[in-house]
Amino acid sequence: MAEIKTKATPESVDAFIEAVSDPVRRADAKAVAALMAQVSGETPAMWGATIIGFGSYHYRYDSGHEGEMCRLGFSPRKTELVLYVLNGSPEQDAQLARLGKHKTGKACLYIKKLADVDLAVLEELMRDQLTSMDARYPR
């Protein structure tokens, strides 16, 4: 079985954020990190080379594949922020309708800049994701 590339590392979250070249994206990354820390009650850690994660859980699929991943996380990419906060719940569909300008993937929320979204709704999405994680992967 292949080794999992995305795992917690000892790298500095602060150094990673400071290296973000775009000043708006860097400021947004600091704000998202602070919000996720507040919502989760967890200290941020680097997961792989580009994901800032909060907390962790152990998963195991029916196939036997298993590993550890962060409960909540994000990555300040070159063109947008990628937030790992989606779980496909109907509640989140309603929240996304109120969020503001964004795109979605299967479990990812893509935001160009925080000024485009309602931060209270973003916090709701984060809290909903943690509630979902707690139900599926109790601590």
TrEMBL record:
It comes from the Bacteria. Residues 25-128 form the YdhG-like domain. Pfam families: DUF1801. It comes from Sphingomonas psychrotolerans. This is YdhG-like domain-containing protein.
